[in-house]
Design goal:
The complex is a heterodimer of chains A (112) and B (113). Chain A is globular, with a radius of gyration of 13 Å. Chain A has strands at residues 4-5, 10-14, 19-25, 32-38, 45-51, 56-59, 62-67, 72-77, 86-93, 101-102, 106-111. In chain A, a hairpin with a 6-residue loop joins strand 4 and strand 5 (45-51). Chain A has 112 residues and is mainly β. By secondary structure, chain B is mainly beta. Chain B has strands spanning 5-7, 10-13, 19-24, 31-37, 44-50, 53-57, 64-68, 74-78, 87-94, 103-104, 108-112. In chain B, strands 2, 4, 5, 6, 9, 10 and 11 form a seven-stranded mixed β-sheet that branches. A four-stranded antiparallel β-sheet of chain B has the order 1-3-8-7, with no helix packed on it. The radius of gyration of chain B is 13 Å and the shape is globular. The chains are: A mainly beta (112), B mainly beta (113). The interface between A and B is medium-sized, with 27 and 26 residues.
Amino acid sequence: DQQVKQNSPSLSVQEGRISILNCDYTNSMFDYFLWYKKYPAEGPTFLISISSIKDKNEDGRFTVFLNKSAKHLSLHIVPSQPGDSAVYFCAASAGSNYQLIWGAGTKLIIKP
Amino acid sequence: DSGVTQTPKHLITATGQRVTLRCSPRSGDLSVYWYQQSLDQGLQFLIQYYNGEERAKGNILERFSAQQFPDLHSELNLSSLELGDSALYFCASSVGSPGDTQYFGPGTRLTVL
């Protein structure tokens, strides 16, 4: 039972354009969502998070949007840069539950 | 550099064997998490320790066990290894509040032959 789904295994975007990575979830108890970025041979690195009381959080080139009614969140990267090429994981947690539930990841490729 | 260290970086062993993976958390973090990432899969949460005590348990097999020591480093013990246990094992640390940012180590790649 995949509670957090990233349906696109990979995404290719031109440098300078917008990258949009999507994540869907099924558990309505999730109230905190995080995006992590992972380069090969390294551990995941925290990128940005959002609480369920908000619908948008912005940090520089990265913006996360949360649509609770659709149980959907997305990560926007504008403008996309070559260094953004990595695997992006969406993760979620519920209330006092410390466990993060992870999606399978989306590999983002930025083309020059 | 996240500040989380994991040793060894690579481990190759045979089926039926037992191995120990080690993790040192970031300075000041009380919580340690262990994850397994099999090929092309997401991260599977195994177990969490907070200040020496087990706090949360995920999909951890009975053949696997972990502990956190008084100096807060943690070890993940994998026994009776099977081919399917080949994976990347990540350790992460955090302050220890629900949903707080977890900082990951570089991982240990385990290959079971």
